[in-house]
Design a protein that fits this description.
Elements (H helix, E strand, L loop, with lengths): L3 H10 L6 E4 L9 H13 L4 E4 L34 H14 L8 E4 L22 E4 L1 H7 L1 E3 L2 E3 L5 E2 L1 E3 L8 H12 L4 E2 L13 H6 L13 E6 L6 E3 L3 H4 E2 L2 E6 L10
Parallel strand pairs: 1-2, 3-4, 3-8, 8-9, 9-11
Antiparallel strand pairs: 5-6, 6-7, 10-13, 12-13
Helix pairs in contact: 2-3
Length: about 270
């Protein structure tokens, strides 16, 4: 389950209607379909809409009940399991949800930039403390440079999917190309949350490029004053690096810029 968000994020970012994932790999014979449903619901909540059932065909025997095991796994989802003949509603439930989830466009609040350093995975990236009720997609430099644009103060994809705010890497590691793209989108009105970017490894050899990183707006509280208000979205163009829990509270974004937003000046 640890990497399914990357799959659903990629489907959203590149306009694919099917986000597929291996399913029920560690299910045991002691598990009922009610137990397995919790795994399915978790994956659905994270955007997966197609399950590839692990090893469901690895039971060629007709006389081994409820089935064999292999490599420490039970492979319990097979025709020899004693509850198999009664499991049709379990599969119908998943088929219906998967069908519905492939319709329409995803509605997601945040897009989290994972940077460009391998391995680019959520598992190696400490995400902000995103409270319940908000969803996010994780994206890389390729999606930023080739798929994202600014429209109506939102981060938009070519197919019409949009995000309300961009979250930058916590370590400030952003390539120069990505920094220029983000700065251009900020000028067009998108909301950005994160620390001041620092020079990326591929720019360290060029002092001219390093200089471009020094003109990003200061961190929260240094030139941008924020006040609590009861609004859904942040109206300031740049939020800075203040604590995430200050930004998201009671399922509302409570911060608004009191002064004129600071626009990054990128050469």
């Amino acid at each position: 389950m640890y990497d399914i968000k990357e799959c659903s994020s990629s489907a959203h970012l590149y306009n694919k209607y099917i986000a597929s994932a291996e399913a029920y790999t560690d299910a045991k014979y002691s598990h009922s379909t009610a137990d397995l449903k919790t795994l399915a619901d978790y994956a659905f909540a994270w955007g997966i809409n197609e399950f590839v059932i692990c090893a469901s065909a690895y039971q060629p025997w007709l006389n081994r009940y409820p089935g064999n095991t292999g490599g420490g796994r039970h492979y319990c989802l097979n025709r020899n399991n004693t509850w198999w003949e009664y499991s049709a509603p379990f599969w119908d439930y998943q088929a219906r949800i998967a069908y519905v989830m492939r319709k329409g466009k995803p509605a997601i609040d945040l897009c989290v930039y994972l940077g460009g350093n391998a391995p680019v995975k959520i598992l190696t990236y400490k995400l902000p403390d995103i409270p319940g009720g908000y969803d996010f997609d994780a994206f890389t430099s390729d999606a930023l440079l080739t798929r994202m644009s600014a429209r109506n103060n939102r981060i938009m994809l070519p197919d019409g999917t949009g995000y309300n705010m961009m979250v930058l890497p916590r370590d400030g590691d952003i390539t120069l190309d990505a920094l220029r793209k983000i700065a251009g989108m900020v000028k067009q009105g998108i909301r950005v949350y994160g620390p001041k970017p620092g020079a990326h490894f591929d720019s360290n050899r060029d002092t001219g490029k390093q200089a471009e990183y020094t003109v990003w707006p200061m961190n929260c509280g240094e030139k941008i004053q924020l006040l609590k208000v009861s609004i859904r979205l942040v109206k300031g163009l740049f939020i800075g690096g203040c604590l995430w829990r200050k930004l998201l509270k009671r399922r509302l974004l409570f911060l608004i810029s009191q002064c004129k937003p600071v626009i990054p000046k990128i050469i």
